[in-house]
Specification:
The chain has 121 residues and is mainly alpha-helical. It has a single domain, classed as EF-hand (Recoverin, domain 1), CATH 1.10.238.10. 73% of the residues lie in helices and 3% in strands. It has five helices and two strands, in the order ααβααβα. The N and C termini lie far apart (66 Å). Pfam families: EF-hand_6.
């Protein structure tokens, strides 16, 4: 019975890995400003903070994830305001969760905004 359970878990892990790979390919295709390397970094960071593997982050998990990617979010009132502004972009319906697609759009938008500002000068 134990062998069957281990085999089943390996199959589920393999299926989830394949799903992640296909999702990454779709997201890369749809995201114009993000390289495959960046996408892999974002996915890895997102998955690291998605401890219970729900495919979504709570606001605190999301904040930790952003900090791990180099976002500077202060621990003061202004930092809270800045974070709430970012959270409103990735969770516009105030569901209390951030899904990977929304998380990725934030980076895609940030990359596009940065490129646009550079070409505007």
């Amino acid at each position: 019975m134990e062998t069957l359970r281990v085999g089943w878990e390996q199959l589920l892990t393999s299926i989830n890995r394949n799903i992640n790979e296909v999702e990454n390919q779709i997201l890369t295709r749809d995201s114009k400003g993000i390289t495959q390397e960046q996408l892999n970094e974002f996915r890895s960071s997102f998955n690291h903070f998605d401890k219970n593997r729900t495919g979504r982050l709570t606001p605190e998990e999301f904040k930790s994830c952003l900090v791990s990617l180099g976002y500077s979010i202060g621990k003061d009132r202004q930092g809270d305001i800045d974070f709430q502004r970012i959270l409103a972009v990735v969770d516009p319906n105030s569901t209390g969760y951030v899904h990977f697609g929304r998380f990725l759009r934030l980076h895609d938008q940030r990359s596009t905004d940065t490129r646009h500002r550079r070409t505007s000068y």
